[in-house]
UniProtKB/TrEMBL annotation:
Gene3D superfamilies: 2,3-Dihydroxybiphenyl 1,2-Dioxygenase, domain 1 (3.10.180.10). It comes from Paeniglutamicibacter kerguelensis. The keyword Lyase applies. This is Enzyme related to lactoylglutathione lyase. InterPro entries: Anthracycline_SecMetBiosynth, Glyas_Bleomycin-R_OHBP_Dase, Glyas_Fos-R_dOase_dom, Glyoxalase_6, VOC_core. Coiled coil: none annotated.
């Protein structure tokens, strides 16, 4: 399942980061993950002044790196969810208690999108595929694996994502490592050997800070990647901790976008 050509509606499909200095961001992630950027293309729906690059590995799309379209747009990573019709999905998110922040907008020929916030303020995207369905390569070192929602109100979030995208929740772990798994019934994703159901599409944890989505990328060694990131101007936000796939480390890039890496060892 590491190569994907399509995503069913309701499955997170793409991650992208918006940065004040897009050239510096390209240099950081190229050095950290050995991504090869292609582009630039225009920022869909965000004005004609910015630049949008698609990062690739082995010629396959893995993530987007773009100019920050406006000062009020935070430097961050955005996770987008595949939808069949972005206008209808934005209306469903609004009915469920969310807020449409941007769009819906055209990003032809790649697709059509929108940016919304859940009731606690966690920002995420909606993506109606055109030429680009989403990430073509996942679940490999230097590629995106899954995104995590940290929220101060898990019950409210569970109700929102159920109403908006059809997700169900399942408890996982105990004590300080307890989390909730978001599942999309009937979906088969992930990897056959993974320790959780292949219906799982995202993870949710309770957090005291602002609600936010954070993408996780697999790497050969999380602590080595953290040291490399520090040498490039990034920093670790907390010590590494153990998760079912391997040791995980939350990082902040030099311009303030937060992401995590999980060490899964070297894989072909």
């Amino acid at each position: 399942m590491s190569q994907r050509n399509s995503y069913p509606a309701g499955v997170p499909c793409w991650v992208e980061t918006y940065q004040p200095d897009v050239d510096a961001a390209l240099a950081f992630y190229d050095a950290l993950f050995d991504w090869q950027p292609t582009g630039p293309g225009p920022l869909g729906g965000a004005g004609s002044e910015g630049r949008y690059y698609v990062a690739r590995m082995r010629g396959l799309d893995v993530a987007g790196i773009a100019s920050q379209p406006a000062a009020e747009v935070p430097t961050a990573w955005l996770t987008s969810i595949a939808v069949g019709n972005v206008d209808a999905a934005a209306e469903a998110a609004t009915r469920a208690g969310g807020t449409v922040l941007t769009g819906p907008y055209d990003a032809a020929p790649a697709g059509r999108g929108a940016v919304v916030a859940d009731p606690s303020g966690a920002v995420h995207g909606l993506w109606e595929a055109g030429d680009r369905a989403g990430a073509r390569l996942v679940n490999e070192p230097s590629a995106w694996a899954m995104s995590q929602l940290s929220t101060p109100d898990p019950d409210r979030a569970a109700a929102f994502y159920a109403a908006a995208y059809g997700w169900t929740t399942q408890g996982f772990g105990a004590g300080s490592g307890a989390a909730m798994l978001f599942r999309l019934p009937g979906y088969v994703g992930g990897e056959p050997e993974q320790p959780v159901s292949r219906e799982v599409v995202a993870v949710m944890v309770a957090g005291d800070g602002p609600a936010r989505w954070t993408p996780n990328f697999w790497v050969a060694d999380a602590e080595a990647t953290g040291n490399h990131a520090a040498g490039l101007g990034g920093r670790a936000l907390a010590p590494a901790f153990k998760t079912p796939p391997g040791m995980t480390l939350v990082l902040e890039d030099p311009q303030g976008a937060v992401f995590s890496v999980t060490g899964v060892g070297a894989r072909p």
